[in-house]
Amino acid sequence: MLNRFTSFNNVLFSDEAHFPINGHVNKQNCRYWSCKNPNRKHQKPLHSPKVTVWAAMSAHGIIGPYFLEDGRGRALTVTSQRYVAMIQDFFTPELQNFPGFNTRTWFQQDGATAHTSNVAMPVVRQLFPNKVISRRGDIPWPPRSPDLTPMDFFLWGYLKTKVYKTNPRTIDVLKENIQREMANITELTCHAVMDNFKRRLQECRDRNGLHLDDVIFKK
Hints:
The protein is of the alpha/beta class. 35% of the residues lie in helices and 14% in strands. It has a single domain, classed as Ribonuclease H-like superfamily/Ribonuclease H (Nucleotidyltransferase, domain 5), CATH 3.30.420.10. Strands 3-2-1-4-5 form a 5-stranded mixed sheet, with helices on both faces.
């Protein structure tokens, strides 16, 4: 990535995330360095109502949210067919009005089967010919790398700190919070995230792939 790009301002990063109704800030990227087990527990219902959200982010702003749900507003599992339907019915029209989209725009997605199947990849490639960053794409993207993915190291965690401040009790209120907080993220913040992304790539290269424990995003 560092050899191919001088700037990442023309790359769209995409991902999905779950927002349960009884949610709390996701600590998946946090690490406890201790000689003792902290023995912390989070108690929550086994099948809490949730929303599944897709979005794409570049230095110019955010496209989304798109809620993967059925006609009754219930969250759906991401499948190849649903992913393709989202790209065709939502993402493609949104791109036409997005200031950060042009013929030189690259698109990044993770290696989930729904994204990289024989059904989905031709649709993605048609929209971004020769400019797909993904497993089976023009530039391979490493699996299990949340420290390098703007959606993981910034967007989802940032949104959850905002969305759950008011303790939403219904799916509709939760969705309204997600829409509002995502719309409030400024282009200036998006630029800062992409600058941080480049520093993370450099740090990853310098550390030969070890933990990026000193790279912290600051708004």
